[in-house]
Amino acid sequence: MGEIRKIFKTVFILIFIFSAQAESKILSIGNPDAKVIVKVFSSLTCPHCATFHTSVFNKLKKEYIDEGLVRFEHHAFPLDLAALNAEVVVRCQTNNETKFKLLGEIYNKQTFWAVGSDINKINDLIKEVGLDFNLTEEKMNACLENSHVQDEILNERIEAQKKYKIESTPTIFVNEKKYSGKVDYKKFKKIIEKNL
Asked: Is residue 59, in this structure, part of any structural domain at all?
């Protein structure tokens, strides 16, 4: 009887760990029941992704996400090791609201940290950004050394490639329909309004 209880306990713990990981996979903000879902596949070292985040996401958040009309999903699609590590640091933060603020700052300071080819220097610069968002250097180091988180992000990228045929970043979907063309908030807003 004790053995069965141990097995159940182990299975329960594994299910709990798996569901906690599955939950953390997609970074999302906004009403889970929103009529409009915006999915953005981006790489944190991509200048166009940074432009989208600073010129479109912030307005979208104010007008639609905060009003419960849109759910926004950030899908990791790292194009290099620096982008992967920056994504790991973003996920190191556990508070969702703070995570999005950190994501925004990673984009704002992209030209500060995404420079050169020395990954150790890049990691140090990413951590400098993370320090302002309730993350300690020890915690960020532990996150960067966690190969499971890196694997999770890379697997998401592979799945996204298979399902959505991502050719460049950012690739944006509004209710599963691909949005293409120059990122312009006025045009983007019209698409959102059409779907509401």
From this structure: yes
CB 84 within 8 A of CB 147: no
Determine how many CB atoms are found less than 10 A away from the CB of residue 159. 12
What average pLDDT does this structure show over 121-132? 98
Predicted structure pTM score:
0.86
Question: For residue 82, what is the domain's CATH number?
Answer: 3.40.30.10
CB-CB contact of 114 with 168 (8 Å): no
- pLDDT confidence band for 23 (50 / 70 / 90): very low
Structural domain count of the chain: 1
Strands ordered across the beta sheet of 171-174: 27-30, 70-76, 36-42, 171-174, 177-179
Residue 164: give the domain boundaries.
23-195
